[in-house]
Amino acid sequence: MEHKWINNTDVLSMFPTPVWKIELTSEAQKTVNKNILEALEGIRPPIADLISAKGWQSNHDLHKLDEFRVLVSYIGDSVRTILKFLKIGYDDFEITGCWANINPSGASQRTHSHPNNYLSGIYYVQTQARADTINFHDPRAQTGIIRPPVTELTVDNTDQVVVKVDSGTLLVFPSYLQHSVETNDSDRERISISFNIMFSSFTENLCKPLW
Ligand SMILES: [Fe+2]
User: Fold this and answer.
1) Closest CA to 202 of 96, 109, 45
2) Phi then psi for 80, rounded to 5 degrees?
3) CA 196–ligand 1 middle distance (angstroms)
4) What local confidence, expressed as pLDDT, does residue 192 receive?
5) How far is the CA of 120 from the centre of ligand 1 (A)?
6) What is the Cα–Cα distance from 114 to 118, expressed in whole angstroms?
7) Tens digit of each residue's pLDDT (9 = 90 or more) over 173-208
8) Residue 65 and residue 88: Cα distance in Å, rounded?
9) How confident is the model at residue 210 (pLDDT cuts 50, 70, 90)?
10) What is the mean pLDDT of residues 158-171?
11) Cα 6 to ligand 1 centre (Å)
């Protein structure tokens, strides 16, 4: 702001909503993807069923499979680093659910969040052009009450951020953060692994009143 009467102006951005975007090395993704695709081969429905159902989700305990051991260890490393970054003084956590999503051409995912967890994440096994984004929605719902027109979309006025992902991308975000996925406009399947993280023994150690 430039006025003769102003000495200095600071814009204080507060309460940020972090989304961690981690790219695996090509060597790491090769191992992880091979294991995952082999495991999915045995449990996924045939492609025709998948297309007519507009997508498929596996059951929610894939993290217990041997083929997911390496991915689970990468998730663990990432979460430990994130908890340190957030200066959280408790690092006993567990994966409460881990499942595969296979979206054929034409499939999308409605807006949702992952209640009763602290962090959520997605590892992308197979994405390609026209099937390589995820939308995150402003968690401050009341900001939608007034939406004046803007001359340019910026991080300060948007209600949605589109994040581009690649095969080998690992995203981690707060579980309260709503997200959605646009229609797969490519002619190949988009394959991803979702997971949730919660503090272990939360009721025993963490849910006492804070004041
Ligand atoms: Fe999700």
Assistant:
1) 96
2) -60, -40
3) 9
4) 98
5) 8
6) 9
7) 999 999 999 999 999 999 999 999 999 998 888 888
8) 29
9) confident
10) 97
11) 46
**Could you tell me the distance, in angstroms and rounded to a whole number, from the CA of residue 114 to the centre of ligand 1?**
6
Cβ partners under 8 Å of residue 108, min gap 6? 54, 180, 181, 182, 183, 184
Give per-residue pLDDT as tens, 49-100: 888 889 999 999 999 999 999 999 999 999 999 999 999 999 899 999 999 9
Mean pLDDT of the chain: 95
179 CA distance to ligand 1 middle (Å): 6
Please give the distance, rounded to the nearest whole angstrom, from the Cα atom of residue 112 to the centre of ligand 1.
Answer: 6
User: In this structure, are residues 56 and 50 in contact, taking their beta carbons and an 8 Å threshold?
Assistant: yes
Q: CA angle, 105 as apex, 100 and 110 as ends, to 5°?
A: 60
Residue 105 tokens, joined: 């051409």
Task: Set out the domains of the chain in order of their start, with CATH numbers.
Answer: 20-199 (2.60.120.620)
